[in-house]
Amino acid sequence: MSSNPVEYKLSEESLLPTEIEEKMRLDHERERADKERRLKLITFDWKDLQRIDWPYGKAHPKEFEDWKIWQADGRKLIVQCLHQENIYADSLLGGLRYPSDYLLESIARAEVLYPSVKSDPIILPPPLYWGRKDIMVDGVDKGYEWMTLPRVCCMAELLSTNPTLNHTELFSSAIVIWFQEHFGMPDDQVQAKLQSLDWETKAYHWSHSAIK
After folding, report:
1. pTM for the whole thing?
2. I need a surface site. Which of 7, 53, 62, 142 has the fewest CB within 10 A?
C-alpha cells in the first residue's frame, strides 16, 4: 500500500466492486481477530472483582473534584486527558541535552496527542535544576555548568464549560505542558500557574455546532 494518501485514494477508487467487498471482509476479520486477542488479555472473572461503594453520591465520575482546577476568576478547568513521560528514560550514558530540546519535543508530542485542540500549546515556565561538573585536565579547570528540567513531562488537555468570547462559544480547550518531579496530578506550584492562565486569550474556543 502506498504511503501517499492521494495514491491510496486513487487505488481505492479503482477497485472493482468484488475487490472492495473482499477488502471489507478482510478488514472485518482482522478487527474481529484483534478483539478476540484483546479479550484473552482479560484473564480475571468479573464476578470475583472487589465491589466498592459508589464514592460520588449522585454525581457522575467526571465530577470528581480532584480532576478540576479553579482559576482566580471562578473558571473551572477540567482535566480531560493527562499524558506523562519520563524525559530521561531513553538517555544514553546519563547524558543531558539542552532544556529547549525537551521543550520542543514535548510540543510536537502534545500536538499529536491532542489534534482536536486547534490553539497552540501553552508552556508553563519550568523550574531548572542547576549543577556543575568539575573536571581538571593537567591542572586546568575544564569544568562546566549544566541545567536541566524536572523528570516528568506532563501534557494535558484542559476543558472549560464556562461561556467565553462574549458568550459566542460554549466551550474552550487548551493543551498545557509543564514539568514536575513526580507522576500524577499537578503539584502546588503548577496549580498556581494554571490558576493564573490567561485562558480567554490562549484557549481554543468552540461549540458542538463547529465540530465536523
Report:
1. 0.74
2. 53
Q: Which of 141, 154, 164 is nearest to 73 (CA)?
A: 164
For 79-128, what is each residue's pLDDT tens digit? 899 999 999 988 765 667 889 999 999 999 999 999 999 999 999 999 99
Report the SS3 class of residue 52: coil
Residue 154 is inside which H or E element, if any?
A: strand 152-160
For residue 14, the 8-state DSSP code is T
Q: CA 131, CA 100: separation in Å to the nearest integer? A: 17
Are the C-beta atoms of residues 32 and 26 closer than 8 Å to each other? no
**CB 124, CB 150: distance < 8 Å:** no
The residues, any chain, with a CB within 8 Å of residue 114's CB and separated by 6 or more, are 81, 155, 157, 175
Q: How many CA atoms lie within 13 A of 4 on its CB side?
A: 4
Taking only the tens place, the pLDDT of each residue in 5-61 is 444 444 555 667 788 888 889 999 999 999 999 999 999 999 999 998 887 777 777
The single-letter DSSP state of residue 123 is E
What residues have CB less than 8 Å from 146, skipping those under 6 apart? 96, 130, 131, 132, 133
